[in-house]
Each structure stands twice: as structure tokens, then as C-alpha cells.
Automatic annotation (TrEMBL), chain A:
Pathway: Amino-acid biosynthesis; L-tryptophan biosynthesis; L-tryptophan from chorismate: step 5/5. The gene is trpA. This is Tryptophan synthase alpha chain. One of its GO terms (cellular component) is cytosol. It comes from Vreelandella populi. Its EC number is 4.2.1.20. Belongs to the TrpA family.
Automatic annotation (TrEMBL), chain B:
Pathway: Amino-acid biosynthesis; L-tryptophan biosynthesis; L-tryptophan from chorismate: step 5/5. Pfam families: PALP. Its EC number is 4.2.1.20. It comes from Vreelandella populi. The keyword Transferase does not apply. Keywords: Amino-acid biosynthesis, Aromatic amino acid biosynthesis, Lyase, Pyridoxal phosphate, Tryptophan biosynthesis. Belongs to the TrpB family. This is Tryptophan synthase beta chain. The gene is trpB.
Amino acid sequence: MNPNSRLAARFAALKAENRPALVSYVTAGDPDMATSQRILDGLPGTGVDVIELGMPFSDPMADGPAIQKAALRALKEGQTQAKTLEMVRAFREKDTTTPIVLMGYYNPIYRYGVERFLTDAARAGVDGLIVVDIPPEHDDELCQPAAQHGIDFIRLATPTTDAKRLPKVLGNASGFVYYVSVAGVTGGSAPTPEKLERSVSQLREHTQLPIAVGFGIRTPEQAAIIGRFSDAVVVGSALVDCIEQAATPDEAVKGVHDLARELAQSVRDCREVREPQVS
Amino acid sequence: MNQSAIQPDINGLFGQFGGRFVAETLMPLILELQAEYDTAKDDPEFQRQLAYFQSDYVGRPNPLYFAERLTEHFGGAKIYLKREELNHTGAHKINNCIGQVLLAKRMGKKRIIAETGAGMHGVATATVAARFGLPCVIYMGSTDIERQQPNVFRMKLLGAEVIPVTSGTGTLKDAMNEALRDWVTNVDDTFYIIGTVAGPHPYPAMVRDFQAVIGHETRAQMQEKEGRLPDSLVACIGGGSNAMGLFHPFLNDASVEMIGVEAGGKGVESGQHAASLNGGAPGVLHGNRTYLLQDEDGQIIDAHSISAGLDYPGIGPEHAWLHEQGRVEYVSATDDEALEAFQTCCRLEGIIPALETAHALAEVAKRAPNLPSDHLMVVNLSGRGDKDMMSVAHYLGEKFK
């Protein structure tokens, strides 16, 4: 991990507080760019620690219905890669400490041009990338170039990633490791906490990086349970659903921020009556 | 240049195209599939089984037929049709499905999934799943379900569950997205039978190898009939499996010209087409880098074709590579040209071709008249057109009244 990065600083601070991070996901430009900017700008105030901002793609193969629809709403309103970077730049005028990780698929980056994208992303204030369709076998495509621009490349580890493969997956990983709780798409159901805890502790044997858990976490209760043994809890589809269900832009902003606030409170409280952090 | 021997490389790359651009959840499985396929390829027992099913179940070898009336009609090249439409299930698709289902059994998989456009791959998959006693789920775009009703019913008769996909425009690419989502969710017990020479490595190479039986037979049959190699090969291209199957065994024969025909829809200049090479740009989708129909922002654009089987915004990565190498010439035929060729073939040869295949025949109509009578041209008659009756009746409209 880039030791001077916002991600490193944020995770170090949280470790000192002995609490997990809340990582929120929303799609850039959903339901439209102006509303999305309001949602984004308000997230740190709700207690979100790390922001994942989705780069909408027409064919999101790894996403369930909620995030598929979010991408389509954003694209319909004319969202582009350039506009997504513009949103980050505008956010950075007000907030210089909350890490932003862009999440999405390779093609829109490839089409934008990898070097040009990384240059513009670094300048806008992007801290990391999660690109689901580039496995470590293709690290030369984006992961290694990103490192040269000081942008962390966050790797996904999954239930199908066995111990033999983990070193390859983690080899060039930086920022944090995203443990995908279930084999499946986003927005599905999470496995039992016992099983997850075992998976996370196995993962710890292979990496010093903070471990985030995501896929299928929807409620403050779930976030609290998973936050006891992980370094970060990622919530996406449940927040995106607030946008879909909103009748007006104001409702969308309020819906996302209200849920984020509840989730943030739960990760702050989750270890209080527990033994100290193990790591 | 010995192209066929070196491609793809160890990462599944044909030049810059191909690769394994999939989510981590699928990576271990794809590596396992590759290892299993590498072993099976050299296993005489696997090859014996494959040959048995190709002959006694699929009905291979199918004829290389001299199309005398088409030849007379165009008054140029001597036209042969490779009769893939005579295979069991009526298209070349089953060549690949038989191979993949044998691999699925070998790997102990309990469930088969597939995507389909025109329904020919869905029918072929449902067929082999029935034969091997495996439950089968087929993803099909809702638009395609509408225009390919007979095939939907066939799949159901064969015991498959057909799941309509409404996302996007409800065509082949959306069906493929949904099949990938199923696969990533049921990764332990499910085998995904991809129907064309696309997707993550090893699919493009594996499907090519299973389809190469088309070219190998053609080579032997032409030798028997004419005592030499053909001069040109013509095939239609959606993902490109029937074309790759015919072309691949001839890639090292410099004298053999190869022409791939993309679906030009309403014309490449209209923007409403499915011609990825002639009207697209390199990008990454569905596990591989290849030419894609996409906008300036890298969003995939919906393809358009009268033929559901060609209605896909990408193309197999090896075709993208052969295109850049200049080894194969890629052209396009419009909906109207395909419909015209469709009727010509029906009336002159008594063969009702698939609308997909009609695109290849449309290129023959342009090319054959200008060639000498000793030019040997092989057209891959990749599928039969029974499934297209309703679409064709609809397009020809008044003529049928």
C-alpha cells in the first residue's frame, strides 16, 4: 500500500479507534449527476469512512438487479467516465481526507485510454480502483500502471479463491483486500457469520492489508456482526435501492444518507462490548 | 507462418486479443477447465467418445455438396456447400456442444447452462443435456424468444428451462450477461457451454477445436472430389464459430482465400448493424478483448440484424486477430441482401438456409459471378432455416399474401 495514501491513513486511524470502516457504494450519476453529487458530498458527514463510487457500464456482469438498474439510470442521464472523474474532483474541493475508490468494469477505462484515465483519475483525487473483470493474470493491463500513478488496486478474493491461488491474487494488491462473501453477484444473500469469520481469518494469514467484506450486507445488524472480525464492511445494493425507491431527488439523497448514518453508527458500536481487536 | 500452432499463447491471447477478463470467482474454475481440456485433448478415450458421438449421434461426416444450380445461376465460381444444416438439430452448433458436454461429464458437473440467440445453440445444448441426463437452463433474450418461437418450444420439449432475459435489448449479449451471472452464483456444480469462439480462455480455442471438424472434413472431401484444395471459403460470422471451424484447418494454406461475412443489418453506415470488425473498435467484454460495437465512452451498443444468431456486438478474438493480420477478409451483408440470397437458395437448390447462413450466401452472390469456372468456392451452410419461417414471412410481408 502506498504509505502516504488516504486509504492507508484512514485505515490506520480506524485501527487506533478499534473499529471497522464503513465502505459505502453508490453508482456515479444515479439517478442523475447533480443528485449523485449531493449524495456523494454528504457521505462523509453521515459517518462513511471509505467511498466506493461505481463507474456505470452497460453490461455489468458481476452485478445483481439493483446495481444493474443503477448503471442504466445513470447512463440514461448521460453519465460518462469524464463526468465521474469530474464528480470526484468536485468532491475533493470540500473533502481532502475521505478515500474514494472507483469501482467498475474494464471496458470504459480501456476505451478512455489506460494512461490517460490514470492520469486524470490521480489528478481528480481518486485513491483506488476495483475493476472486477481484470484478474491478476492480467496485472500488466491496469494494476501495475495504476501503482505508478499512486493509485491503489484493490483485489477481490472470493470463496473460490483457494490457498494455492491467494498469493497470486494478493501479489500486487494494495489499499485493502475486498473479500466477496458469496460466490454470486452483488445484492445476493450473505453467508453465516461463522463461515465468514473463518474465511477472513484464513485470508489474514496471507496479507497485512486491511480486509473488507462485501456482497449481501444490507442492514446495520449485519454490518455490526461482520464488523467485529473484519476491517471494513461494504454496503452497496441496499443504498442503491434507496435511490430506486425515492420519488424525488431530495428523497434519494435523504434515503441514502439516513441508511448510511445508521450503518455508520452500527460499525462504531459493534466492538464496544467485545474483546479487543485480534489483528 | 504457422499460425494455428502458436495461437493462443499461455494466457489465451491471440496477439492482443482474447485473454481471461473475468471476475475472480470464475478464475479458479476457468483454470480448472483449461487443465481438464488440455488433458482431454490428448486422451485417446475422450477422442474416441467424441468421434463416436459425432458420427452416430450428430450424423457426421455431412456432405460437401456441389451446388450445381447456384453455380449455373451465378455463372462463375464452382460452388460447394458444406452441409452443416444436415447435422442433428440442424446446425453446426452441436459439434461444439457434444465436445463440451463430454468435458462436463468428465469434470463431474451436475448442471448445464447456456446462452442462445437464434436458439440453435440453445437447442443443441438442450439436446446434449437430455442425452447425458443433465438438467439444463438456457438464457435467451426476450426479443429473441419472440422471433424464434419454434426453437423455444424445441428447447422446452427437450426438457430445458428457458429463462427470458429482459435487460438491455433482450438479445444475445444480455443472455450472455445473465448466463455469466448464473455461472458465478452456481460455480461449483455448473458447466457453462458457451456457443461460440468467444468468452474467456480456453473457450475460444476449445470451441474452435470442436468446430474444426468442419474444415477437416471439407479438406478431405474436396481432395476426393477435385483432387486439390479449395480456392476460397465463405462463412457468416456472429461470434464466428462456424467460420472458425471451416477456416482454421486451412489457415496455413496460403492459396486458400477466406471470407467472413458479418451482419450488416440496415447497412454499416446506418449504425444499425452487427458488424463488429467493420464498424466496431477493440474493447473488453464477456471475458475477452476483441472488436466490439461501442460508443466513445466504452458503453456497448446494441447490435441489429434480421438474424438473431448474428445479433451480437462482439466477435471471437481469433477473428479479431486474423482481421488485423489480414489473413481473413471480413465483409458484411445487409438484411435485404441476406433475404434475397435466402430466397435464391430455396428456389434453386431446394435448401432452406438459416438467415445467418444467408449472409454468407449473399457474399457468394457478389463474388462468384466474377470468378473463373475453375475457382472452387466452399460456403459453410451452417444451419437450416425452419426456425426462421415466421421472421421471413414477416419481412417478406405482402409477397406471401
